[in-house]
């Protein structure tokens, strides 16, 4: 195990994988209720049980001092948290790439401020380009607001913008080419994601709606030849290019082509759990450390270093009716 006195590349797990990417959830709350992410009626955590913005900032600082090169702030929907711009400006000054994942609902009035705060990259979730279907999949989302937010983000000039779409058979798989064409038209990237079995849902059977990345790729190649590329963004997307476009097409395949052997990331949930694997419950309570040892960065860093020994080799997702992981995606951090 690495020594806490030598912070260079300190975060190495038992399988030799270096962790240089952290996803920090800033809230479990969201202004949407996407069918694959939340129950329709949600009970959110009391404020006292979630990390303060200052505590999230301390965690970010600790990880960067331990060699992390990329931070992604997630939710829920991160942009609905009060005073979140204060956190963005602070984390944006660290020596690390800063990205956020958002549903796009707040971008019309926040995109430029995010860019000015130091956010380098945006992932924007959009599963449908049809207004009625978009509302059904998000339960309460408004597509025109998200489309306007995408335009505002493009205008703000982020280093990279990527659209994320969770593909489900019978729900939106007939829009795969429409989403590729939309990304090409906007000059942004798009990634297609296999639904992850997190949380108990009632709207659909995960086995019946499962659409593999290979199936999605086959649909796209009916119109566009996809050329493999070795380009990576520290995340799990495997990218392809098209000869006549700058837009990239990515695939995130936790079922069909899992990326565990090269996993370089961990998550911190909004309640301060350092989650070592998306598909397992191995975790360490950083909230306790922060509040039992306030402002003690060395203690926090040592707890993080020690936690690397808990990172499992891989996850095991299947399509059973009962989810292996009970927590919803909004609790995990998207």
Report a brief summary of the structure.
With 334 residues, the chain is an alpha/beta fold. 30% of the residues lie in helices and 17% in strands.
Provide an overview of this structure.
- Strands 7-8-9-6-5-4-3-2-1-10-11-12 form a twelve-stranded mixed sheet.
- The protein is globular and about 55 Å long.
- The relative contact order is 0.17.
- The protein has a single domain, classed as Alpha-Beta Barrel (TIM Barrel), CATH 3.20.20.70.
- β11 (273-275) and β12 (283-285) form a beta hairpin.
- It is an alpha/beta fold.
- α1 packs across α10 (297-307).
- It is built from eleven helices and twelve strands.
- The model is unreliable at 1-8, 198-202 and 321-330 (pLDDT under 50).
Give keywords.
single chain; 334 residues; alpha/beta; TIM Barrel; 12 strands
Strand order of the largest sheet: 7-8-9-6-5-4-3-2-1-10-11-12
Q: Based on CA inertia axes, which overall geometry fits?
A: globular
Low-confidence stretches: 1-8, 198-202, 321-330
CATH topology grouping: TIM Barrel
Give the total of domains. 1
Over the alpha carbons, how many angstroms does the gyration radius reach? Answer: 19 Å
How many helix segments? 11
Strand % is 15-25%
| Number of beta strands | 12
CATH superfamily name? Aldolase class I
The SS-based structural class is alpha/beta
The SSE order reads EHEHEHEHHEHEHHEEEEEEHHH
Give the CATH architecture: Alpha-Beta Barrel
* Share of residues in helices: 25-40%
What is the terminal-to-terminal distance?
A: 29 Å
Q: For this structure, what is the CATH class?
A: Alpha Beta
Determine the mean pLDDT.
87
